């Protein structure tokens, strides 16, 4: 008996939407990870931490990185260790809380981030940015915010 694929019309819309999010996240993350690793010896998890650091004008408490990224706190700690060993970030004691540390990009970290970000954007342009218009991007951003706001639910 021949096997056939289930079509979108046969799948409930909520299931198809969920599968689409998982598929897109997996495929795009793998694509970016390959490009960043090849061009900069930088795994996508390291880039994610650097992206949050580059987006902040001030040093970022390590706990905030754990809450902001898609990584666990222990993963963030390992990534920050690796970035620090490459001279890409510094850890400094927090002036507000003696029990915590704040993380910031070094000048070398900023340089690598800029180059890696250009690689990421070039990698995603033909398969994401060029395919979606501003309304699509805003809709995806709205969906992401809604889902993330209820991540504990």
From TrEMBL:
Gene3D superfamilies in UniProt: Winged helix-like DNA-binding domain superfamily/Winged helix DNA-binding domain (1.10.10.10)
Gene Ontology biological-process annotations: response to stress
Highest taxon above the source species: Bacteria
One GO molecular-function entry: DNA-binding transcription factor activity
Residue stretches making up the HTH marR-type domain: 1-149
Protein name: Putative MarR family transcriptional regulator
UniProt source species: Streptomyces lydicamycinicus
């Amino acid at each position: 008996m021949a096997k056939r694929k289930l079509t979108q019309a046969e799948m409930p819309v909520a299931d198809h939407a969920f599968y689409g999010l998982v598929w897109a996240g997996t495929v795009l993350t793998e694509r970016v990870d390959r490009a960043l690793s090849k061009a900069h010896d930088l795994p996508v998890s390291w880039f994610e931490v650097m992206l949050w650091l580059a987006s902040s004008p001030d040093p970022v408490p390590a706990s905030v990185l754990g809450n902001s990224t898609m990584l666990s706190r222990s993963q963030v700690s390992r990534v920050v260790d690796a970035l620090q060993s490459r001279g890409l970030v510094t850890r400094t004691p927090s002036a507000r809380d003696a029990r915590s540390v704040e993380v910031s990009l070094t000048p070398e970290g900023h340089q690598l981030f800029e180059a890696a970000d250009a690689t990421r954007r070039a990698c995603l342009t033909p398969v994401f940015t060029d395919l979606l218009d501003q309304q699509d991007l805003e809709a995806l951003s709205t969906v992401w915010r809604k889902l993330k706001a209820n991540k504990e639910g």
